[in-house]
Write a structure and sequence with these properties.
This protein is an alpha+beta fold. The protein folds into three domains: 183 residues, Alpha-Beta Complex (Lambda Exonuclease, Chain A); 75 residues, Ribosomal Protein L15, Chain: K, domain 2; 256 residues, CRISPR-associated endonuclease Cas1, C-terminal domain (Four Helix Bundle (Hemerythrin (Met), subunit A)). 42% of the residues lie in helices and 17% in strands. The protein is built from 19 helices and 20 strands. A hairpin with a 2-residue loop joins strand 10 and strand 11. The radius of gyration is 28 Å and the shape is elongated. The two termini are 43 Å apart. 38% of the residues are buried. About 8% of the residues have low confidence.
Length: 578
């Protein structure tokens, strides 16, 4: 962590204070190389024993004391684990392995008030010198150490000069102080951010953009996630673990085997079993498993204890306990939702000036709301207008006010039929239970969207059940419901219309009774596929200007809320589509 503090104080705070970590190609390869060296090194190995083929292997043949030596320095106020130590004539030298390459030749570095000169990076010098100071405090003579850079195959000797020792003591003091303070600001236009494993958590350029320090941010975070959601809807299916893969079986036959690295979280519907070993695999990786009823109702989510980023949740509880603060955020959330509803209608129908004007008035009135009950009133009036107009979109082509198709919403109505026209008839919004197929799809889509926000909030370290707008009830993810409001029309409503207007969802995909409508197994599978396609679509972020998927947007929104609660940015504004 001292190494991280010198490299980037914000990275130190994210890892050491907030307890966040994320694997990258560099960290995975570095961990593998450490394991390789550890496995080839015995408890005690004398110099000259055995043959070597490479320089890296030669380093493992030295007079090492142990594979991993953990030491505590009460006077220094630090603890550490040493990769290895080498003893020569009563001198003990720490040896630290680095996956990267060292500087090109001897370089001069400034660290605080001290100047350092070496073929090693200053953060690496601090780390190995701190290990040497730990050895000293524990009774070992240590005047120098070594750093081995694998990429450049270079072993660098680090002399523990007075300047370096003083620099290390200063770093220890500053890092200890930083552990009790707010998160430091991100680096400004730094090349370090590009390959940092925590850039998705940090959002350096996005934070600087919202703070007005830079213009358009660099494209640092990936537009899409590498992993997806595993849905299991087959009744009687069983999920188990095999090595680093998840196996799905049904009727005593393997249906699929998926590498665990490709699964972001899992959604199990109805009578689906999961083994303890498989569940442990998800929990250990901080990934969620959601349990739904056969009808699609979210019953609960299995997740590891929210043990990280306690300070963020303290800020969350403190801020959401103040009525004025909750009203401030609620106004922005509801206004963004209404504006997105208005934009969605405007894009897809030309002649609806009356509805658009009513929605504009409702959005403007949100700013004037004096309390949350009155804000809910404006939201309710807007919702009534929106869902009265919504059925007019069913069976139509996507058009903007100029008669041009938009890139982002409904495709041509290729699968529409007269049967569909009468079947997908919607009269207003009905819930619990839905009275028609359109409402059944909307309700199920909102359930999936709430599930995704629960997972995103847990990943950030926020409590999804403690919100600022929706009333808090037992088992109700209030904050997830708050955050999803602006995304209802953007993700679910547009996707439902697409599935209907393209003929993907058919009357045969629904089960109808006198009191409610549900999707069949085939209908639910078709709907889930459409939902995942929508979440994987790339949009141009209206603030940051780069292309990003809706699923990634959800994560960014939750992290920006966290940045706001921690005082990293001055305001939180939900996404508004253009």
């Amino acid at each position: 962590m001292l190494n991280e503090y010198v490299y980037c104080p914000r990275l130190f705070h994210l890892e050491h204070v907030q307890g966040l970590f994320r694997e990258s190609a560099d960290t995975v390869q570095g961990s593998y190389q450490h394991k390789r060296v550890d496995s080839s090194r015995s408890k005690v190995r004398r110099k000259g024993k055995g043959k070597t083929d490479t320089l890296e292997e030669e380093e493992t043949q030295q007079n090492f004391f142990t594979k991993n030596l953990s030491l505590t320095g009460d006077k220094l106020g630090i603890t550490g684990k040493l990769d290895a130590i080498e003893e020569e004539a009563g001198h003990w030298a720490a040896l630290e392995y680095k996956h990267s390459a060292g500087p090109a030749g001897n370089a001069e570095f400034k660290l605080g008030n001290w100047s350092l000169s070496s073929d090693a990076w200053p953060n690496d010098q601090v780390q190995v010198c701190a290990q040497g100071l730990l050895l000293r405090e524990n009774g070992y003579r240590s005047e120098y150490g070594f750093i081995y850079y694998r990429a450049s195959k270079k072993k660098v000797r680090i002399e523990f000069t007075p300047d370096l020792v003083n620099a290390v003591l200063d770093v220890i003091a500053r890092a200890a102080k930083a552990s009790t303070q707010a998160i430091p600001p991100p680096l400004l236009d730094s090349p370090k951010c590009i390959r940092c494993s925590l850039n998705v958590f940090c959002l350096p350029d996005e934070t600087n953009r919202l703070a007005g320090k830079i213009g358009e941010p660099r494209r640092i975070i990936p537009g899409r996630d590498d992993a997806g959601v595993l849905y299991v809807v087959t009744q009687g299916a069983h999920i188990s673990k095999r090595g680093e893969s998840v196996v799905v079986s049904a009727n005593n036959e393997v249906v699929d085997e998926i590498p665990f690295k490709d699964i972001a979280h899992a959604a199990l519907f109805g009578h689906v079993q999961i083994s303890t070993e498989a569940l442990h695999l998800f929990l250990a990786a901080q990934r969620t498993v959601s349990f739904f009823s056969a009808g699609g109702k979210l019953l609960g989510t299995a997740t590891a204890p929210i043990a990280k980023n306690v300070a963020l949740r303290v800020s969350q509880f403190r801020y959401f306990n103040v009525e004025e603060s909750c009203l401030r955020l609620s106004k922005d959330i509801v206004q963004a939702k209404i504006e997105n509803q208005r934009t969605f209608l405007r894009r897809n129908l030309k002649k609806m000036e009356g509805s658009l004007e009513q929605l504009k008035t409702a959005a403007d009135n949100c700013i004037l709301a004096k309390d949350i009950p009155s804000l809910r009133g404006y939201e309710g009036k807007a919702g009534q207008v929106y869902f009265e107009t919504f059925p007019e979109l069913i069976g139509r082509k996507a058009e903007s006010s100029a008669g041009q198709r938009t890139f982002d919403d409904l495709p041509e109505s290729q699968g529409w039929s007269s049967e569909s026209s009468s079947f997908f008839n919607m009269i207003g919004r009905t819930k619990r239970p839905p009275k028609d197929p359109v409402n059944a799809m909307l309700s199920f889509g909102y359930t999936l969207l709430a599930r995704d926000f629960v997972a995103a909030l847990i990943g950030v370290g926020l409590d999804p059940y403690f919100g600022f707008y929706h009333s808090m009830e037992a088992g109700r993810p209030a904050l997830a419901l708050d955050m999803m409001e602006p995304f209802r029309p953007l993700v679910v409503d547009s996707m439902v219309l697409r599935l209907i207007n393209t003929g993907e969802m058919k009357p045969s995909h629904f089960l109808m009774t006198a009191t409610e409508v549900q999707m069949s197994k085939e209908g639910r599978a078709c709907f889930i596929a459409g939902y995942e396609r929508r979440m994987d679509e790339l949009i141009t972020h209206p603030v940051f200007g780069y292309r990003i998927s809706y699923r990634r947007v959800l994560d960014v929104e939750c992290r920006l809320l966290g940045r706001f609660l921690e005082g990293d940015v001055q305001d939180y504004k939900p996404l508004r589509t253009r």
